[in-house]
């Protein structure tokens, strides 16, 4: 089992994947990691849309100028929120995505965040509206991101303390 700090250090944004199906048990654990996330007022307003079909992954890979790699991932998890979500929906969904990121790393999977909220499609349209239409997400709901998930085709080095800027640490005041 990977410790939390090991998962944090090993977590990298992976954009290339091998052609291998993700086991249902591993995918379920990723979703549970998201569901176990804390949220404002304990509302758990998120929804996770699992996308496995090639055609839909192809279409989602065109949602922004930075999402083309998504078509190669065996799974995309789109993170959205209820229409009646509290005002902190961005923070709530971001924490859920972070939990999914770390669980994916612990499972030996790679993932990468694909920003959808506040982004444009390559044609200049609203990326969130594009994704909502594709996935039939209800009117009034919001979409934060998609996460590509798969077995990494690249082995990136883990983060290490020596490369961190300790000047970012402050005690008591800036």
Helices, strands, pairings?
Blueprint (H helix, E strand, L loop, with lengths): L3 H7 L13 H12 L10 E6 L2 H7 L14 E7 L7 H18 L3 E6 L11 H9 L6 E9 L24
Antiparallel strand pairs: 1-2, 2-4, 3-4
Helix pairs in contact: 1-4, 2-4
What attributes does this structure have?
single chain; 174 residues; alpha+beta; NADH Oxidase; globular
Tell me about this structure.
The protein has 174 residues and is of the alpha+beta class. The chain has one domain (4-154): NADH Oxidase, CATH 3.40.109. It has 5 helices and 4 strands. The protein has helices spanning 4-10, 24-35, 54-60, 89-106, 127-135, and strands spanning 46-51, 75-81, 110-115, 142-150. Helix 1 (4-10) packs across helix 4 (89-106) and helix 2 (24-35) packs antiparallel against helix 4 (89-106). The N and C termini lie far apart (37 Å). 33% of the residues are buried.
